[in-house]
Amino acid sequence: MRLYLAGYENYDSLVPEDCKPEVTNVLISYYQCKDINLFKRLSEEGKYVFLDSGAFSAFTQNKKIDINRYMDFIKKVEKYIKVSVSLDVIGDGELSLQNYKIMSENGFNPIPCFHPKEDFKILDYYCEKSDYVGLGGIARFRSAIKRNWYNQVFSKYPNHKFHGFAQTTHRILFDYPWYSVDSTSWLQGGKFGRIVLPGAYMADISNKTFLKNSYVIKALKKYYKDLDIDRIISDYKYRNAINVTTYLKIEKEINNKKITFKNTQKTLF
Question: In terms of pTM, does the model score above 0.70?
Answer without folding.
Answer: yes
